[in-house]
Write a structure and sequence with these properties.
The complex is a heterodimer of chains A (about 525) and B (about 180).
Chain A lengths: L23 H7 L3 H29 L21 E6 L3 H9 L5 H13 L5 H7 L5 E7 L3 H11 L15 E3 L2 H6 L5 E4 L3 H13 L3 E4 L7 H13 L4 E3 L7 H11 L6 E9 L22 H4 L11 H5 L11 H17 L6 E7 L12 E8 L4 E8 L8 E5 L2 E5 L3 E5 L7 H6 L9 E3 L12 H8 L4 E4 L2 E4 H15 L7 H20 L3 E4 L4 E2 L1
Parallel strand pairs in A: 1-2, 1-4, 2-3, 4-5, 5-6, 7-10
Antiparallel strand pairs in A: 7-11, 8-9, 8-17, 9-10, 11-12, 12-13, 13-14, 15-16, 17-18
Helix pairs in contact in A: 8-9, 9-17, 10-13, 13-17
Chain B lengths: L14 H27 L6 H5 L6 H9 L1 H24 L3 H18 L21 H14 L9 H8 L5 H6 L1
Helix pairs in contact in B: 1-4, 1-6, 4-5, 5-6
Classes of the chains: A alpha/beta (about 525), B mainly alpha (about 180).
Chain lengths: ~525, ~180
């Protein structure tokens, strides 16, 4: 067939509108690729049908869907009714963040967020702030022991750049002590974001005064304090919320569905981890240049502390490094991990705990460990929960639920991978429908696109759903949703997702690890006397 | 090939030459078309990560683009349907020349967004090892071959278009006559 491109010679002599004169051979040549298109279409349809059938077979076997969780606690937000007067006690990083998520960002933060956006258009923090719902709260009072921080909160209270164009508020009043604020009659609800050693006293006093409480984790510094707060809140009619943002995470709620559908089979081991590798991550926070005995109330700061020491800027600004004010990794990060696991599995308080660790990297005078492991036993649930952490290595080890039939990995993306020796999936494994080299189920919170999440600590929080989550494909702050839920319940009744019952479980579980580590022994929970022994 | 390879309708090609040229055109068409369809079938696919990972001279503009949800949606739709349209054009030989040129433009954009320069790394994993030349560039040049040696006026639906378009004999037909 030489001179092929000549076509079919005289038979195809052109003429206007000469279609009809194309020879049969010419027609066949022109349509040569049509059969190829047929093969293409057939293969695509076949591939799609096979993929769909495989997916449908797996999903029907699992009994779950890949769409978003059916029920998210605050998915149905009720319109904010009456205006709530909000007080803030403790204006550190967390307090200022909560204030911003309630709709009051400090002007400096807005300026920095604008600069960040100019530098990196993927930076979404300003957009998220401006798009958060107006919670219809007025920020009326603030208490902090450091003048600079108290003034920052007052400045934030007057900010005129507010979510959804809400109007600016009159300035919040600064109180020198939280008791004055509680007695002032100017607040209906308070956010408690102080160091942990102050939580118990403030929560009890607020409950006694009938003022609603949003308390940062960990609930308390000691077991005794946890009992006291629990009793005080139960006795009162206040609405209590503990600040574990994972309660709002879509991934965590989807994970509950996975567990409810018994996809993993019997779970014998849950492994939660924290890895950080920076000074900031190890609580070596900045000491403010204006911090001195004249600008901060040291006596009041250490009033409830176990040991009184001379004025110390290090202790004031880096309080997490000492047991006098907190419980180190147990209260800061094990608390998040446990609450996430408790949310998914409803484990409650473990029967026993063994914890070990040491101060191996940050030998800077701290007395809390920087490497910390805790193993909890749940004989009734036939499983062990292990927490493992180091502050001197940044590898992400994730959060894993290990069952006989499959392993679930919970993070920004949730995935379930079948186990090669699974009984339940044996047939489908043998048929090749399910294979162990890739997840048989993946759930990615509905969002197309990317965000700038840069630092390792930010990535850790983001991967645990502690920074933001998604609602209908829209990125939302998990802090904001937690506050919104709390305010919804105050106005309309119902139950907060991190109420005093789960807060108590969190506190006791963390304190068991602290006790075990400090006392160098295995500790157990006596469910009758409700005491760690 | 006995005649110069430049110009649209120089023949005659040997049957082996014709077969390989038509096969090249159709296979590239197949690849484009499937890339488009695979993206359309994947609800999570987005160009945002690819754009945001850009390292070369258009970096700032592309990151701006990736940050804008509306722009990303437009880029995604254009890319998905563009791939399908170019793929069908090449596969069926329908408007194959504009399709091939559009394909060259699209592939140059892919290459410009993430050129495999020595020492530059990207967040999106590469499926092979490359320096300067990657499969995008090879496919781009292969498409230029398709432009340089057109086949669709005979082996493709363009044969019909060519006939309705002009009363003049096509070059290869004139050569034959």
């Amino acid at each position: 067939m030489s001179d092929e491109l000549k076509g079919d010679g005289a038979a195809t002599q052109p003429s206007p509108g000469g279609w009809s004169r194309i020879s049969r051979r010419g027609l066949l040549q022109a349509l040569v690729s049509v059969p190829v298109l047929g093969v293409f279409a057939y293969n695509i349809l076949k591939k799609k049908a096979l993929d769909d059938a495989k997916k449908a077979a797996i999903l029907s076997e699992l009994g779950v869907t890949e769409i978003g969780p059916a029920v998210i606690p605050s998915a149905i937000s009720r319109p904010p009714g009456r205006r709530i007067r909000l007080g803030l006690i403790g204006v550190g990083g967390e307090g200022e963040s909560l204030l911003r998520h309630a709709g009051f960002a400090h002007p400096d933060w807005i300026r920095d967020a604008r600069t960040a956006l100019e530098k990196d258009p993927l930076d979404k923090q300003l957009e998220v702030y401006l798009n958060q719902e107006d919670l219809n709260v007025v920020f009326t009072g603030v208490c902090d022991l450091f003048d600079v921080r108290a003034e920052r909160a007052v400045a934030a209270s007057r900010v005129d750049v507010r979510p959804r164009g809400a109007p600016a508020n009159p300035p919040a009043r600064r109180f020198r002590s939280y008791t004055e604020m509680l007695q002032s009659g100017e607040v209906d609800a308070v956010i408690v974001a102080t160091p942990d050693h102050w939580h118990a006293r403030i929560c009890q006093d607020a409950a006694a005064a009938g003022i609603h409480v949003y308390c940062e984790k960990a609930l308390t510094r000691t077991e005794e304090e946890a009992h006291a707060v629990y009793a005080a809140v139960k006795k009162s009619k206040i609405v209590f919320q503990l600040g574990h943002q994972n309660r709002q995470s879509e991934s965590h709620n989807k994970a509950r569905e996975i567990i409810a559908a018994n996809i993993l089979g019997p779970i014998t081991l849950v492994e939660a981890t924290t890895n950080r590798n920076s000074k900031w991550g190890a609580w070596v926070w900045d000491i403010h240049k204006d911090g001195n005995p004249a600008t901060l109330d040291w006596a009041q700061f250490e009033e409830p502390a176990a040991h009184k020491v001379p004025f110390s800027l290090e202790r004031f600004f880096r309080w997490r490094c000492w047991y006098d004010y907190g419980t180190g990794l147990a209260g800061d990060l094990l608390s998040h991990e446990f609450d996430g696991v408790n949310q998914i599995l409803q484990l409650g308080i473990p029967q026993s705990c063994v914890a070990t660790g040491g101060i191996y990297h940050f030998t800077d005078g701290r007395d809390v460990p920087d490497v910390f492991q805790a193993a909890y036993e749940y004989p009734e649930r036939k499983l062990t929960f292990v927490y493992s952490a180091t502050l001197a290595n940044g590898k992400d080890r994730g959060l894993q639920f290990m069952g006989h039939d499959a392993t679930m990995n919970v993070g920004g993306t949730l995935s379930v991978t079948a186990d090669g020796e699974s009984t339940r999936y044996k047939k489908k494994l043998d048929e090749g429908v399910i294979d162990t080299s890739q997840p048989m189920f993946t759930y990615r919170p509905g969002f197309k696109g990317i965000d700038a999440v840069t630092s390792a600590t930010m990535q850790y929080f983001a991967s645990r759903g502690l920074l933001f989550t998604y609602r209908g494909g829209r990125r939302m702050s998990a802090y904001h949703l937690m506050l919104q839920e709390w305010l919804d319940v105050i106005r309309h009744g119902g139950e907060t997702s991190c109420n005093i019952d789960v807060a108590f479980e969190e506190a006791i579980t963390c304190h068991m690890a602290t006790r075990s580590y400090l006392e160098g022994r295995r500790v157990t929970w006596d469910p009758v006397r409700r005491r760690i022994v | 090939m006995t005649q110069t390879a430049t110009g649209a309708r120089h023949g005659p090609y040997s049957s082996f030459q014709v077969t390989t040229l038509v096969a090249l055109r159709m296979l590239i068409g197949w690849h484009f078309c499937y890339e488009g369809i695979a993206k359309l079938l994947n609800p999570y696919w987005t160009s945002a990560g690819y754009l945001a990972g850009s390292q070369w001279f258009l970096k700032d503009e592309l990151i701006d683009l990736a940050a804008n949800a509306t722009a990303v949606t437009v880029v995604d739709v254009l890319n998905e349907w563009g791939l399908v349209a170019i793929g069908l054009g090449l596969l069926l030989g329908a408007l194959a020349r504009p399709a091939a040129i559009a394909g060259v433009v699209l592939l140059s954009l892919y290459w410009i967004v993430a050129p495999p320069f020595a020492g530059v790394t990207y967040p999106m994993p590469a499926e092979g090892s490359y320096v300067l030349v990657n499969k995008v560039l090879v496919e781009l040049v292969a498409l230029l071959v398709v432009v340089a040696f057109p086949t669709s006026d005979v082996y493709g639906l363009d044969r019909f278009l060519a006939r309705t378009r002009t009363a003049k004999p096509a070059a290869h037909e004139a050569a034959a006559a």
